Fold each of these.
Amino acid sequence: MPVISRFPVRYAETDQMGVVHHAAYVPWLEQGRVDWLAELGVSYAELERSGVYFPVVGLELAYRRALRFGDTVGVETRLSELASRLLVFAYRVFREGDAEPAATGRSVHVPQDAAGRVRRLPEDLYERLKAAAERET
Amino acid sequence: MPVISRFPVRYAETDQMGVVHHAAYVPWLEQGRVDWLAELGVSYAELERSGVYFPVVGLELAYRRALRFGDTVGVETRLSELASRLLVFAYRVFREGDAEPAATGRSVHVPQDAAGRVRRLPEDLYERLKAAAERET
Amino acid sequence: MPVISRFPVRYAETDQMGVVHHAAYVPWLEQGRVDWLAELGVSYAELERSGVYFPVVGLELAYRRALRFGDTVGVETRLSELASRLLVFAYRVFREGDAEPAATGRSVHVPQDAAGRVRRLPEDLYERLKAAAERET
Amino acid sequence: MPVISRFPVRYAETDQMGVVHHAAYVPWLEQGRVDWLAELGVSYAELERSGVYFPVVGLELAYRRALRFGDTVGVETRLSELASRLLVFAYRVFREGDAEPAATGRSVHVPQDAAGRVRRLPEDLYERLKAAAERET
């Protein structure tokens, strides 16, 4: 089951076109995967302290309809692909109340250690992510 | 010939991984296309005042090597695709002095009017963009 | 009674010092006053549509202890000063669970119309703000 | 002599009021003091690597006139106060071509080590800063 993160559009996230600036969605997706991990019982803050980092190596966003200050945003996150050295998250960004997503996206991550070297996911974490990803398909 | 935008990494653009946060690249690409247009003699600020907007409908980024505070960034921008209702810009982000890009990206734009309706590019602008795009191939 | 806004620290809000960057607090205060107004039944989005803007003319922040990714932030907002052409909001930013604020701040606003001219607050809005400010003292 | 940092307003720095959002000035001031230090031959990136951090403990901004996308910004920075455990920078933000500042500001810093403990400035750095501050008065 995908996890939903909800928050209001911040005024600072708008631009002079009167809508949310396209860069503002990027931290939203990040919050989406942090919440997805938290739902699984995994604190990303603790993960980093244990030496596991998920830097972004790829990012894709498709913007379908504008969001505005005053809107409440829902980010629906799921893990769409998993290997021992790869994670792909998929996102759908909704304006609360809408059936169609305002944007969709994907982020690709390669697990690293604190020194920035690619590393395998710890076995137990991998198993938990795997089980969660399968529940989402 | 692609246009190069240069600027220092801002401290605020770093994150606790000690490198530039992946969201910080998005305004860099935007500055890249603003500078590309300026090089062609087109002020994006004036373009908007004349009722032509280039909202982002698609965005892709591939991050290859981390950038750090203290680095000077160069964004190389070119127009890679053009139709009367579509513009695609392609970017290569370099750390000054490096031969290989730190990141590559693409942004897709659909021209709109002030009310957010899709519109054709003004003919003269289209011709100038077309000529510039051809010089870059 | 002050209004409390709560949200998690975003990863993008950290910097290479490993703590929340000082600029990230500024949109938090903004969210604080938007929520304070909402609690009063005033939508800032609608206020702007009706031609009343509260641009920031002054801002002060004192940072007392660092906040970190993983922390939940609470922003306590109150209206500390009010005149027909002036609003001052005061803020205390807490890390959830702490008794002492991590930061305190103040923002000064002058009501403007859509053209950027100083204007008086609408009478009924002024009365509601006044009553709320008095309840907070 | 104050040091001037120059850069274009970024589109992402605007908000739906059609002007630069007040939070966007904060990284500008930061760039101002980084450039001020660089002018003195001090790399803030290296300073941190040597264990000297200048976290912001206080920040003040007064916004006098709006800045817009299309404007070139100049930030004039000087060191206005110095003690062995305190630095205060003062800033004037200009729109290029204007005689009057668009904003003025101040940031207060307490030197820290990597663990976040207050520390004295290294003696040689203190002397260089002192000499520079005196030249500016």
Amino acid sequence: MAAALDAALGAWRLLLGPARVLSSPSELMPFAASTAARPVPPLAVLRPVSHDEVVALVRSAGEFDIPLYPLSTGRNWGYGDACPPTSGQVIVDLGGMNRILQVDSELAYAVIEPGVTQAQLAGHLAERALPLWMDCTGAGPDTSLVGNILERGFGHSPYGNRMLHVAGMRIVLANGDTLETGFGHFAHASAAHLYPYGVGPWLDGLFTQSNFGIVTSLGFWLMPQSKMVSHMIASVAEPAGIARVVDALRPLRLDGTLRSVVHIGNDLRVLSGGMVFPSHLAPAGPPLPAQVRASLRAQVGIGAWTVSAALYGRPAQVREARRAIVRAVGGLARLRFLDERTLAIGAAAARLLGRGALGRRLSAQVDLGRSLLNMNRGVPDGRFLAGAYWRRRGGWPAGFPAGANPARDGCGMMWLAPVLPMRGEELLRVYGLVEPLFASGRLDLFATFSMINERTLGGVLTICFDKEDAAETARAQACYEAAFARLLGAGYVPYRVAPHSMSALDNGHDSYWRTVSRIKSALDPQGLIAPGRYMPR
Amino acid sequence: MAAALDAALGAWRLLLGPARVLSSPSELMPFAASTAARPVPPLAVLRPVSHDEVVALVRSAGEFDIPLYPLSTGRNWGYGDACPPTSGQVIVDLGGMNRILQVDSELAYAVIEPGVTQAQLAGHLAERALPLWMDCTGAGPDTSLVGNILERGFGHSPYGNRMLHVAGMRIVLANGDTLETGFGHFAHASAAHLYPYGVGPWLDGLFTQSNFGIVTSLGFWLMPQSKMVSHMIASVAEPAGIARVVDALRPLRLDGTLRSVVHIGNDLRVLSGGMVFPSHLAPAGPPLPAQVRASLRAQVGIGAWTVSAALYGRPAQVREARRAIVRAVGGLARLRFLDERTLAIGAAAARLLGRGALGRRLSAQVDLGRSLLNMNRGVPDGRFLAGAYWRRRGGWPAGFPAGANPARDGCGMMWLAPVLPMRGEELLRVYGLVEPLFASGRLDLFATFSMINERTLGGVLTICFDKEDAAETARAQACYEAAFARLLGAGYVPYRVAPHSMSALDNGHDSYWRTVSRIKSALDPQGLIAPGRYMPR
């Protein structure tokens, strides 16, 4: 292996030039950094900048029989970051393939490479004053759009179910073939990025959460800008009260009144957006004592749960949606609606109140509101990564959120992402299943449940831990494993997993995974691309 | 082969009982009936009624090495009907697997088997007064929902892009394995039919327009009933005028104001819904002379193009959508909106006018309006099959549209279905590409262009011909082939094809089809399931 690797590194240096082949421990270290308890370092890192270079790398990896682990920007926070599922893999870092190949204002789409970040595409649209918004996640400005899409991530806009807004992938297969999905493989195809399915088997889904190929570009649909965006914030006082709110909002999500992904966060999820663990108030460490938690809730003005969603449309459409929301949950939650007008009033009031406590609090709320509205309109913001730093010693790094990078900054964080039917009782049941595990692990439970489509809630349960504290790290790992197993056993399957959990998805006699592995053998008999990735056997 | 078939038939008779194994020419004849020029008869027909029987049949077909061609109800009108792509296949008719396995009113979905028809599910919902509507196509009451979904068909409602409203398939693979997609293969999975992707590669797309397995059930999402439905009808006087209407409606389709599939039909498409070819007015046969065509247009009160779309929502939402439509195309087309109220007024007026010409015309319009609104609300209607009978000798059969079956009734019809970017100029270009071919073939060109998603038009160009006229049949076939080639050459790839055109999709060095065939080899090395189906090589 070592000899083969040396020979391969030599060949790759000839191919890419020495600067784009990393192999020294100091160069590899950043790639091994992970918010997970156990990082997995790569053998080397290769940095192609074009589709043809990727083809050449794949062919050459085949000759040397060395597996490649492709990543876009490697910022898969909370789900393994840049780490391959197993050691012995060479990272193909596609961050340098960052061209925006096309933007069509009329038909509202872009064609992008894997290295294109949220900030880059948002900037591109803004600089050219194009009348388009992109869907945006809270993962920060420097994260890859393609990487998130291929992990089937969710954003915050009406296009938040991102997989439904992709058409036409270009893929390098393990044998070096270039595959174009949709209509793209037909000459002169005019709808290559407008109609996903093409004719014949629709293959795109195969290349998400998988290891069947390396996607080098894809068509990503953009939203025409709305005349108006209004951000709803609903505050629910008591923990169990969220169930009725979920049930009351479900019909509005189902009938298209609420077209964007609705987020439901518990108090800790909201609090952790504005502070790190307050050791001065809780010297014994986590979990945050109930009394402190209650007093922080009162201070920030939130209840046990906060529901947040954006309304898009012409003013008359937005007003009608607001009325429907008020009718549905006005009696169950405290409702506020933010828009440009309310923010301007808030900002003016904050200026009047000056630098006193009230003025500062209002000013902070206006800032947060602006970040939310920006994200709704496709402008990413690093502040939504704040929660990852909850247990980091030293708290937020200087300059936060600029350049926020939880893995590099040594944050300890793992995510569990069960999917559940969109029913209030199911939310409470899932919460009830994991809460005792967090309590016995002496960990704070941050929870969000998002209406990721019209019929399900996508839970994200965050475990934050102090990585410098070996005991806390061990408790976090144990809590993660116990919660993962308990949720899976109860039928709450995750929508996405970190590499170290992939093997837990297969009970050993599941024909789904058997089928996946037969497809893998057909497309990549040598096991060259990302072995182990969503491939338990 | 004959000996193997005899042995297999014997085994299948033991397995299913003799009544569910058809092999005599008279029994097979209905399956060979096709609206296409060249029907392809099966070797035999098997009628399993359960998933387990399908598993047993697949295993036994493997032993006898006889290929199976699964179909749901075999009513794939215009795209090959029940015919396999090649002779020598045994049809597995899943029409007897027609159970509605589950309906959930709260989360709005059904789980259905392949034999469930549009009328059956619509009736099920109506009988139980469930507050749900199903998406409906114009293919008539007796057609299969699953069959249409697996061909990636489109209906008329906000759920018209059917592929996006399916979650959790159960599939029999060629080796007899049962595969459940989405979360369905996990024990106790509560979101099996609520969240399509599952975890790991999303495989559903593989089983559409393909031959990788036999789908025996799937989860099909239903719409919560809207408070109001309004049907827009826009009439465009001049042929070229449709381009500006497409461009003016595009922003409303893109921004979600128009959530349902918008249909755009030319005059012949609309006229053929109410009459067959008027030989008394055009004794020389097709194409319909321009003057006759113009006079029929005037008589029915339509222009060169008719745009039709349904608006759904609460009354305030529907009113706002109407206002936006009027603003966008009020100056470009004559607009009407149908809803329950306007239909009631029309019906009353028709009664007052009595049995005179005006009264009969208004009454017919009210009937058509009711059929349209019914279809918008998921109640299928056979009248939308009328066009298939345009050139049938004897016209509509007695009792039409009850039991309409264009293949059995000897209609000659073929469909071309190019996808184009949603731009007016592209519509005119596609029309211009095929019009001369229809003219030189002396055939009427029925055209619809539907806004099947937010960015494309799905064209359906219908060739109707008199099957009893050999020369007209030959001209129809030649026109079909020339138009298919011309559209494909210009980059207007079809979204769906008839079996006899599948081989034309591959230029012989296309890595997409190479990949498809590698997957086929992995899942079905023996080539047991539907050889040739969306598998050009």
